[in-house]
Design brief:
The complex is a heterodimer of chains A (130) and B (114).
Chain A: H1 19-28, E1 33-34, H2 35-45, H3 54-67, E2 70-73, E3 88-91, H4 93-115
Antiparallel strand pairs in A: 1-3, 2-3
Chain B: H1 3-11, H2 17-38, H3 44-111
Classes of the chains: A mainly alpha (130), B mainly alpha (114).
């Protein structure tokens, strides 16, 4: 099992995350998955708008392992039916904190966009808040 | 193994050796899984190949740049280590020769008049 070191690593150094990295973290937030499982979950969750190819997926996984955002897991959800060659990945505590910080950053941007009435398409027709 | 999977395996050769050794098999497996799903859809294989080619081109370039950067950093690191090693090796020699010279001067200065 490989573990990325997070010692002395600043959380904010990781931000902003690329869409692929954020999607992988979101995909691993609820359970461990293998590469194809991540690809399928991202595609389903985004309604097919985001499709990670194997190159993008494993290029991101390589970087995320090095940055300590995810780690390989030795546990296999169902060894009886599972292909032993598959590698499973799980989010680390550091990865969870980084994903949370990115979500907060994006939320701030959304608030700014809302305040400047950029929501609702074509930059107009935004219902006023209470 | 299907023809598509064999072609994809060949495309993997474009990635840097280190990356391919680490993730090649997993990528092949993921592509195979995608292929088996898309095979059942009308035009699925064509769409799969279109996005796969874009994915391969983009990520081969990225991994090659990263690999070259890492290689350059490794070369610079080894040069730095060589310089430090050289300095560490020379420092005792310098110290010994300087001490000998000072001793020689001291002896000459103190005892020569005698």
């Amino acid at each position: 099992m490989r573990h990325g070191s997070t010692d002395g690593r600043e959380l904010r150094d990781q931000l902003p995350l690329s869409p692929a990295v954020l999607n992988i973290l979101l995909s691993l937030a609820d359970k461990e998955r293998h590469g194809y499982g991540i690809m399928r979950e991202v595609e389903e969750r985004t309604g097919g708008r985001t499709k990670l190819g194997p190159g993008t997926l494993y290029g991101s996984i390589k970087r995320m392992l090095a940055d300590g955002l995810i780690e390989e897991s030795d546990e296999r959800p169902d060894p009886a039916i599972d292909d032993q060659r598959r590698r499973y990945y799980r989010i680390t505590d550091f990865g969870r904190r980084v994903a949370g910080a990115e979500a907060e950053r994006l939320s701030g941007l959304v608030e700014t966009a809302r305040a400047r009435k950029l929501f609702g398409g074509r930059g107009s027709s935004v219902p006023e808040g209470p | 193994m299907s023809r598509s999977e064999r072609v994809y395996r060949l495309l993997l050769l474009a990635y840097p050796d280190e990356f391919r050794r680490e993730y090649g098999e997993q990528m092949e497996q993921a592509f195979g899984d995608l292929y088996r799903v898309k095979r059942g859809e009308k035009g699925g294989i064509a769409r799969l190949w279109m996005r796969t080619i874009v994915d391969v081109i983009r990520t081969v370039v990225a991994q090659r740049i990263m690999s070259r950067t890492n290689h350059r950093e490794a070369v610079m690191q080894s040069r730095r280590l060589a310089v430090i090693g050289f300095v560490l090796l020379l420092a005792p020699l310098y110290f010994v020769s300087a001490s000998l010279m000072m001793y020689g001067l001291g002896v000459g200065f103190l005892f020569d008049p005698l």
